[in-house]
């Protein structure tokens, strides 16, 4: 899809990989609709991108909030062509810790944001995309890009909920792509390794340091949000990519710890 003057909804837009995606898609000429639950940092995004962007405080886990956000995007820009799911949380705990079972509140939160939240955006964005006229050459109406994680295959100690949520994102990619193919809507997920964002800054330093020291092949460093965003842009622009999950991880392979 040519991104010039298209409309891209990005969740988790106030930080990290979502913010990087907003910048990259804006640089390609798209108008940006940034969703996040963090109102203050969304204002910074709007200030940075000016009239090319609008933002809305949206909780992706909440159906009514997502519907209202997509309605706002339609009212402001008249269409949705691209949806990028980056909102996510990484709360971790061991399955049993100090004799106590994994807190179900943590499980429910991680699944609600990472998995249900992704599907909420998919559902409402797809309805909006179906209103687009098909591209004259390709028949394309839209593209949905999800963020899974290397943890979907290789979750570490403490990542049961997170890994399950990200495996869920990977798992829904093919059936949703099949559901939406007849409408000219593609669905592709990205499985990042370790990227330098607020989420990773929140991990115990021992955890992130041991990944950088021992588990990343080459280049031996964390990824930068612009390196993730370059892949988002490529997926949006390359109409032949569909129904798959692409790793961007410098060859990282997680050990137990
Ligand atoms: C964000 C992405 O999408 C990409 C990724 O997933 S990259 C992978 C990110 N990994 C994680 O998020 C791991 C999550 N797990 C954890 O943070 C921790 O395991 C936990 C907080 C859940 C439990 O930690 P804990 O209660 O200290 O567990 P415990 O078994 O007692 O730990 C023993 C030791 O191993 C260390 N350890 C635990 N998990 C570790 C890990 N994954 N890597 C390195 N060291 C680890 C602990 O720091 C502790 O060290 P000390 O004894 O020196 O304090
Ligand atoms: N940073 C990394 O190494 C990796 C990140 N990921 C995934 O990439 C995505 C982006 O993560 P980062 O940019 O690293 O994290 P981040 O913490 O920098 O950004 C996540 C954003 O999501 C927002 N958010 C959280 N819950 C929300 C909700 N319910 N509704 C709306 N917004 C919400 C936060 O406010 C924040 O702005 C997440 O899905 C994460 O799981 C996957 C693999 C690796």
TrEMBL record:
Gene3D superfamilies given in the database record: NAD(P)-binding Rossmann-like Domain
Superkingdom as given in the UniProt entry: Bacteria
Sorted UniProt keywords: Oxidoreductase
Record carries keyword Lipid biosynthesis: no
The keyword Iron is annotated on this UniProt entry: no
MF term (GO), any: oxidoreductase activity
Family of the protein in this entry: Belongs to the short-chain dehydrogenases/reductases (SDR) family.
Protein name: SDR family NAD(P)-dependent oxidoreductase
Species, as recorded: Vineibacter terrae
